[in-house]
Amino acid sequence: MNILDRIAATKREEIALKQLVVPEARLRDSALMQREPASMKASLSARSYGIIAEHKRRSPSRAVINQALTVQQVVRGYTAGGAGAVSVLTDGTYFGGSLEDLLLARAVTDLPLLRKEFILEPYQVLEARAHGADAILLIAALLEPGQIEALAGQARELGMEVLLEVHDREELDKSPLGSADMIGVNNRNLKTFEVDLATSHSLAGLIPDTALRITESGLGKPGELRELRDSGYRGFLMGESFMKQDDPGKALKAFLKTLEA
Ligand SMILES: O=C(O)c1ccccc1NCC(=O)[C@H](O)[C@H](O)COP(=O)(O)O
C-alpha cells in the first residue's frame, strides 16, 4: 500500500469516530460559522507572487521540520512577512497537525486560511468552515469526479473556495475543473515523494484561465518562482523551506525581498 492509500485508510477511520464524538449539529453551532470567509483567490491575485505559506511541523517525507515554534508564532510571522494566504496542515497522524492549529491560526491572522487536509467526506468540509478556514484542498488522486463536484459545491454553499490539486495529466483530464477556484499542481508525487518542478511547467498550459494557477511543493529558490510565474502560476505553496528556519516569517520576508528586487 502506498503512503497516500495509507493516509486515506487512516482518515476514513478517524472521520467515522469523529462524527460520533462531534456531531455535525455541534459544528454548525461554532461561532466561526457566523464569520464571512475571505477570498484566497483574490488575496493571491492581488500580489505579483501570491505565497501560500504553510505551517508544517513534520511530514511523511521529513520526520522533523520544526517542532519548536507555536502555530501562533509561525502564522504571525507569515502575516508580517507578506504571505498572501496561510496553509494549515490539520492531519495529526502523518503531519502532527490538528484542527486546534487552524483555530489558533484564525485567532492571530486575517489572511485567508487554507485547511490542508485529506478531504474525503462532507463532514470534513463542515469541520473546516467551523474552525475558521476560508478554503479547502481537494486532492484529485483521492476522489472521483462526482465527489469533487459534490464537496466543492458544499464548500461554495458554506462560502469557502476550493483549491483542487492534481499531479499529472490524467488527474487533470478526469477532474471537473470548473468546480475549482484555484488549481494546484503538486510537484511532489505523493506516492513516491519524488519532487520535480517540471511537473508544474508541463501542466500549466492545460489549466483553464477561469482558475488561478498554483504550484505546490519543493519550492525554495527565487529563480524557480520567476520561471514558474512565466509559465502562468500566480500562487506558490511553500512549507518546508520556511518552516525549517528558526524564524519562518523572517525567512519569508527575506525571500520576497529577493524575489521582487
Ligand atoms: O510533504 C510530504 O511529505 C507529503 C507526503 C504525502 C502527502 C502530502 C505531502 N505533503 C503535502 C503538501 O502538499 C506539502 O506540504 C505542500 O505542498 C508544501 O510542500 P513543501 O514546500 O515541499 O513543504
UniProtKB/TrEMBL annotation:
Keyword ATP-binding in annotation: no
Alphabetical list of SUPFAM superfamilies matching this protein: Ribulose-phoshate binding barrel
EC number per UniProt: 4.1.1.48
Lineage: superkingdom: Bacteria
Pathway annotation from the record: Amino-acid biosynthesis; L-tryptophan biosynthesis; L-tryptophan from chorismate: step 4/5
Enzyme kind, highest EC tier: lyase
Key words of the record: Amino-acid biosynthesis, Aromatic amino acid biosynthesis, Decarboxylase, Lyase, Tryptophan biosynthesis
UniProt-listed CDD domains: IGPS (cd00331)
Domain Indole-3-glycerol phosphate synthase: 4-254
Catalytic activity: 1-(2-carboxyphenylamino)-1-deoxy-D-ribulose 5-phosphate + H(+) = (1S,2R)-1-C-(indol-3-yl)glycerol 3-phosphate + CO2 + H2O
Family the UniProt entry places it in: Belongs to the TrpC family.
Protein name, UniProt field: Indole-3-glycerol phosphate synthase
Gene source species: Robiginitalea biformata (strain ATCC BAA-864 / DSM 15991 / KCTC 12146 / HTCC2501)
Taxonomic lineage from the root: Bacteria, Pseudomonadati, Bacteroidota, Flavobacteriia, Flavobacteriales
